Amino acid sequence: MPKIVTLPGDGIGPEVTAAAVEVLREVAPDLTIEEHLIGGAAIEQTGEPFPAATRGAVREADAVLLGTVGGPQDSPWNRLPRPQRPESGLLALRRLMGCYANLRPVRVLPGLEHLSPLRPELARGVDILIVRELLGGIYFDGDRRLDGDSAHNTMRYTRAEVERVARVAFWAAAQRRGRVTSVDKANVLEVSELWRSAVQDVHDRKYRDLHLNHEYVDSVAMLLVSNPGRYDVVLTENLFGDILSDLAAVIPGSLGLMPSASLGDGAGLFEPIHGSAPDIAGQGVANPAAAILSAAMLLRHGLNRPALANQIDGAVAQALRAGPTADLGGRAGTQAFTDRVLEGLQVTSGA
Ligand code: NAD
Ligand code: IPM
Ligand code: MN
């Protein structure tokens, strides 16, 4: 019986995680699902964003499903010393689990082009996989300081850190259309020069049959939304990947459609890419699709049950066609949308 740890967190996190758990229980009743604290919710109850009990449970888990962490801009959590804030709990979780490769798929499914603000001919058929390095770069470097009127953070990568995430990108591309675009700022940054050379080396040593090109991040930001069809796998470092993936959410139409899988050498971590959405939290209107699709990624990548993952993907697409949530211009609430997904599952499983 695989053990799943869920970490609902803050804001809409508990609402969308509950939806994903309903769906998981429906398709995989054999899973043991155990809920634990993270983020602001954990700070309130234990004083820490990533308490020892959660760390222990995560170490024992076969896969982890996270909601979201963090408060509104004026939250008292944002005045705590940085290591004690909700977001630091999430970063510590990623580091503990060793999840260095964050897969963020961006897909416009047939019949859902109308949900995109882009012209249908631009949105149609888009199928991009952003592979974001998740444990390095400016996020994790110890050389950081806010000192009165001066502050600094440092972007640093080793060749080994770049190579291991590049291998994941090429592995994914080999199962897709065989094209990797590595995104950097090598015209300005030494770190990007190393990034580019390490990615090219991995390609030349082992993946010469795949297509690799290098593009600059500023231009990619423009091309992603003006000509998204030109991309297959987009490989990039931590901060660039964070920004480009929220931008890419515009293509399908909402952050609420963007799931992710974070993979490393051990158990995987699965989470929607969106935040805690304080502006709509507690209203029952959040789009649970990203969380439900993250549960599908958990089944596919975390537990090697691709057939169940496909069933969930199909039921979500069907529910979106029937009527989406408010972020996509629809009227379905979180529960109504989840119920439609559950109904779709029963249809596809023949029950
Ligand atoms: P956000 O992603 O929470 O929200 C941005 C906008 O998108 C808001 O208007 C929100 O209502 C909307 N939105 C996001 N997800 C939605 C969904 N599922 N359904 C409908 N609408 C949705 O970004 P933010 O406002 O910049 O950040 C809020 C908090 O979340 C901050 O504390 C931030 O640090 C945190 N955050 C956490 C994560 C995470 O846990 N992985 C990711 C991003 C931001
Ligand atoms: C994300 C979030 C996180 C990140 C924050 C909350 C630490 O924005 O998962 O995209 O920057 O990685
Ligand atoms: Mn982000």
Automatic annotation (TrEMBL):
Q: Which Gene3D superfamilies match?
A: Isopropylmalate Dehydrogenase
- According to the UniProt entry, what is the EC number of this protein? 1.1.1.85
Q: Per the annotation, which location comes first and is thus the protein's main one?
A: cytoplasm
**A single GO CC term, please?**
cytosol
A GO molecular-function descriptor: NAD binding
Please indicate which superkingdom the organism of origin belongs to: Bacteria
Q: Which UniProt keywords apply?
A: Amino-acid biosynthesis, Branched-chain amino acid biosynthesis, Cytoplasm, Leucine biosynthesis, Magnesium, Manganese, Metal-binding, NAD, Oxidoreductase
A Pfam family: Iso_dh
Q: What is this protein called?
A: 3-isopropylmalate dehydrogenase
